[in-house]
Amino acid sequence: MAHLLVIGASQGIGLETVKAALGAGHRVRAFARSASKIELSDPHLERFPGDALSAPDIAGALDGIDAVVQALGVPFRDLFGPVRLFSDATNVLVPAMEKAGVRRLVAVTGFGTGDSRDAIGPLQRLPFRLVFGRAYDDKDAQEMRIRRSSLDWTFVRPGVLTGGPATGRYQVLDRRSSWKNGLIARADVAQFIVKEVDDSGHVGRAVVLISHALPV
Q1: Which residues form the NAD(P)-binding domain (predicted)?
Q2: Measured on CA atoms in the order 47, 193, 100, 142, is the torsion positive or negative?
Q3: Can you tell me the distance from the alpha carbon of 24 to that of 65, in angstroms, rounded to the nearest whole number?
Q4: In the chain, where the domains are located
Q5: CB within 8 A of 51, min separation 6: which ones?
Q6: Is 158 in contact with 107 (CB distance < 8 Å)?
Q7: What are 120-173's pLDDT values in tens digits?
Q8: CB contact at 8 A, 188 and 209
Q9: Are the C-beta atoms of 138 and 86 separated by less than 8 Å?
């Protein structure tokens, strides 16, 4: 049983990861500004209100932790202005983890980040850049900062996220030549993250997760 810190735990993939990790028997420290509002009941859950941009908050949250899941998100309305959350929070997290001796980091970024950008199909490329360009430029900076670290990292790059329960039927595309966009449930992403924390099968690598491929 590991002690996990999930950053961005109040919604989306972060919340699903909290649920999946608890279901797998792990202890979970759920970090978010609204962590106190997480409506889950489990003796292995610790709600930890904090700001991902605050060095003291992050340092405190890392105490006694075995692995970190970084699953930050921004509201849709914020995608059309400057986005700095992903890189700024990572610039706080990475040195704090190195100082605390916590080596394992699973960071959720997205399909289209870093070297997966070239895999975006021509029909998807323009709308993707118009809507998500600023956020993904910042995710690029997030990944670059992590790559420069001494951490045992994995980048999880899900395709287009959907709701609903985990299906267990998804593809883990871990070769650059296989990367493509597709749909995947947040709960399936969370299941993969927990498995990756358990077995560390993709340390120092990026994987794309999809259930059903989209037309290129």
Answers
A1: 8-199
A2: negative
A3: 17
A4: 3-213
A5: 33, 57
A6: no
A7: 777 677 666 666 768 879 999 999 999 999 999 999 999 999 999 999 999 999
A8: yes
A9: yes
